[in-house]
C-alpha cells in the first residue's frame, strides 16, 4: 500500500533524526561512534558520557513531546472541525504556566518533579474547564463555543499568572523557562510517570482512529451508524488533555507542532485517521528532534530554546494557512 510505504519513509526519517540528535552538539560525535555507544552503553569514555547521560534522555524526551503534540493537534482538529485548532486552544499552555507560577510563588515548590506535576495538573484543569464550558447546555459539540471557551480560559489564566508575577518576581526565571519551551537538562527518571501517560494516551488515540473517521463524517451519519458521539468526544477530550498536558509539563510551551504537523501529514500521507495519527506521531517526533538539534548548534556554545525554533518554522505556515481560509488542502 502507498500509505504503508510513506509511513515506512517517515520511520526511516525519524531514525535518521535520532542518530543526528545523538551526534550533534557542542562536540560532534561521528554516527558510527554513536552506534557503538548504543550497542555498548556501559563502556567508558567521554563520548559515551555525552551520548548516554545527556543526549539520549533529551532525544527520548523530544520523541515523546513531539509525537504527543502532533497527535493531540490532529485530534483537536477532528474534534472541533477547525483546521486552525491546536492543543493551545484548550488553554492547556496557559493553565500549565499558571500552575507552575502558583506552585513556586505560593507553595514554595522547588523540586523539578513537583513542577512537572504542577504543570500537568494545571493543564488538565484548564482543558477540563474549557471542555465543560464549551459543551454546557449543548446537545452536540459546538466548535465555536470550544474556541471561545479556550480563548477565555487562556486570557484568564494568563492574567492570573501576570498578577502572581507582579507580587512575586522571583518566580519570573522559572516561568520564562516554561514559556520558552526547552528540552535541556531533563531528568528522564523524574519524567517516567508522565512518559507512561503519553504511551497509554497514544495507544488510546490509535485505537480510536476508526471512530474519529466516523465522527468526522458528520453528526447525523455517526449517530445513524450507532456511534455514541457524546462518549467518543469525551474520550477524545481526555486523550487530548493527557497528551498535550504531558507535553507541556515535560518541555514547557512549544507551539506550532500541533498545528503544523497534522496538515503536513494529511497532505502527504492520508486523511484517514488510521494512517494520519500514526504519521503525526512519527512526523511530530521527527520535526521536534530536528528543531532541537538545530537549536543546540545554531549559536554555539549557547543554545536557543526549542520553542523559538518551532515558532520560526511554524509562523510562516500559519500565515499561509490563514490566507487560504484555513482549508486542509
From TrEMBL:
Q: Where in the cell is it found?
A: Cell membrane
TM segment ranges? 56-76, 88-108, 114-134, 146-168, 188-210, 231-261, 273-291, 303-322
Q: Which SUPFAM superfamilies match?
A: ABC transporter involved in vitamin B12 uptake, BtuC (SSF81345)
Cite the InterPro entries for this sequence.
ABC_BtuC-like (IPR037294), ABC_transptr_permease_BtuC (IPR000522)
Give a yes or no for keyword Transmembrane in this entry. yes
| Stored Gene3D superfamilies | ABC transporter involved in vitamin B12 uptake, BtuC
Asked if the keyword NADP belongs to this entry, the reply reads no
Annotated keywords: Cell membrane, Membrane, Transmembrane, Transmembrane helix, Transport
- One Pfam entry name: FecCD
Record's bilayer topology term: Multi-pass membrane protein
Q: What protein family is recorded?
A: Belongs to the binding-protein-dependent transport system permease family. FecCD subfamily.
Protein name per UniProt: Iron ABC transporter permease
Q: Which organism is it from?
A: Pseudomonas fitomaticsae
